[in-house]
Structure formats: C-alpha cells, structure tokens
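Incident review: delayed structure delivery

Summary: a single-chain prediction request sat in the queue longer than the usual turnaround. Root cause was a stuck worker, restarted by the on-call engineer. No data loss occurred. The affected request and its eventual output are reproduced below so the record is complete for anyone auditing the incident later.

Affected input:
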Amino acid sequence: MEKKSLKEASLKATPGRILVLKYFRDFPTPGNADTIYKKIGREKIDLATIYRILNSFSNHKLIQRVEIGGASVYYELADKSHHHHLICLKCNKIRDIQGCDFEEILSKVRKENSDFGDIKSHSFEVFGICKDCV
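Output delivered after worker restart:
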C-alpha cells in the first residue's frame, strides 16, 4: 500500500519513505519528526532523513501540516476528512475531533468582516489536560 501511494506521488519507494508512510497509516493522530523517530527506531532511520522525508511528503501532498501551537511541526495524512484536534497541554497527546459544524461561526465571521471576499479554510483546536496527566 505504501509503495503504491509513493508511486502515485511520483516518489521512489525507498526503505525510509516506506517506514515513515507506514507510521502515518499505523498511528492516525498527528506526529512530528521526534515522535516518528522514537516509534520507528534509530537503528532503521536517522532523524535528519525523517525531516527530509517529511518535507518531501508535504511538498507532494501525501501529508499536511497540523497547526497545534508550540515549536514542533506536526503532520498527518493529507487524505483524511476535515476534522479538528483535542490536544493535552501536558503530554501533547492528540486526538481527532470528527466532523465540523462550523457554519454558524463562519456565517458570523463573514457578516462581521465584510472586507474579506472569501474564506478558504479554518483551523480549530481544543486544548486541555488528558486523564493520564490530571
């Protein structure tokens, strides 16, 4: 499955790319380079290679950036349906919030900001403390 996705994105199916893409399929919540490195293992791939692969995957639209705040950049598969995230402020655990009933808020934003002709997208994250960290 990973080889097919890489081929469709016009990327060579190297062992490192296969490992990183498999990570995103096996762990459906957003991940950053350090998380991926820890899950895959340093004996299989080095951190610099992971950064290069993430950049390449992002450029080829296999993954997308997830803006959750903080210094680290998180990514997830680009083929996921539109959703938002619930993030633990202590351990950075991330859970997807499925669905998006945002039309009422967007309608209000459009009315109150008539100098914007069109709203293309939005981002909405919820922050809290998970039960493991309480």
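Verification: The radius of gyration is 17 Å.
Action items: add queue-age alerting; document worker restart procedure.
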